[in-house]
Specification:
The protein is an alpha+beta fold and about 300 residues long. The protein has five helices and twelve strands.
């Protein structure tokens, strides 16, 4: 791992992806102790997907061997601060012949911001079935969300404009474009294609960390669809409370993946969301679940 001596955010897809790869390359500072760098140009609250992905990388670094991560379960306790790096302490709770567990505590300024357990399995054969991938338009027939955001630049409040428009290392192509300013109540289901915007190294663990990073995008917003609100709605407060990912099969995060999300319930200022991630060839490669804070302040 190298230090971010240049804190400026890249502007090209290749540069953004290179920075993201470096961001997820956590530094081993002692046995089972890792440090995650700050995001170049980051301000305010750390993106939850970054903390999950760095925690997974720390767990993968500790696990090593011939076992691959197949699930993770994380709880967010405090918002991360972009002004400081994050320290990850790994605890080796279990090491079996087929499975292993790693518990990860993410710390900033001496306080935990996330607890996560990751489970690893040695590859083996078994019974198989899966959901069928939804019939949706191909990504080549859809527009990048970044283009749609740029078209409404003048409508975005000045204080949100830089964050709203900044280039991102994950390219997203929604099957049904969002209405950012006057959302209408609709069924709590959405489909989006996504991929890392430039080619990645052939590293199974890195691709899994990239998917964990991207899995925190678009998911929480699903539970707000029936209510005609989103994170830009005045007085709306949102935050991830917990996050789980099950990694079913191998994939490349730099190839198109379909993220299908739905929300069966919301209430008591919380919303529950589920996600399924399909490879382009129809394989179900991951499943996700998340409960988040969705509070309309008085």
């Amino acid at each position: 791992m190298t230090d971010h001596t240049d804190t400026r955010r890249a502007t090209t897809p290749e540069g953004l992806v290179a920075q993201l790869v470096e961001l997820l390359d956590v530094e081993e500072i002692d046995t089972d102790l890792y440090r995650g760098a700050r995001q170049p140009g980051g301000e305010g609250r750390v993106f939850g997907g970054q903390v999950i992905a760095q925690a997974l990388q720390a767990a993968q670094g500790s696990a090593g061997g011939d076992k691959a991560a197949h699930s993770l379960h994380a709880y967010f306790m405090r918002p991360g601060n972009e002004d400081y790096p994050i320290v990850y302490r790994v605890v080796r709770d279990f090491e079996g012949a087929s499975f292993a567990n790693r518990r990860v505590i993410a710390m900033q300024r001496g306080k935990p911001i996330l607890n996560m357990i990751a489970s690893f399995q040695r590859r083996e054969q078994g019974l198989h079935h899966q959901d069928v991938m939804p019939d949706v338009p191909a990504p080549e027939d859809l527009r990048p969300e970044s283009d749609m955001r740029a078209e409404i630049e003048e409508q975005v409040p000045e204080k949100l404009r830089r964050f709203f428009l900044r280039a991102r290392p994950i390219e997203i192509r929604p099957c049904a474009p969002r209405d950012w300013f006057a959302p209408k109540a609709q069924q709590p289901v959405q489909h989006s294609w996504f991929r890392v915007a430039a080619r990645l190294p052939d590293d199974l663990g890195l691709h899994r960390a990239m998917l964990a990073y991207a899995s925190d995008m678009t998911l929480l917003g699903t539970c707000m669809l029936p209510h005609g609100v989103n994170w830009m709605t005045a007085k709306m407060q949102t935050a991830s409370l917990d996050h789980a990912v099950w990694l079913h099969d191998d994939f490349r995060a730099d190839d198109w993946l379909l993220y299908t999300t739905d929300s069966p319930w919301a209430g008591h200022a919380r919303g529950f969301n589920r996600g399924r991630i399909f490879a382009r060839d129809g394989r179900l490669v991951a499943s996700c679940a998340q409960e988040g804070l969705v509070r309309l302040r008085e």
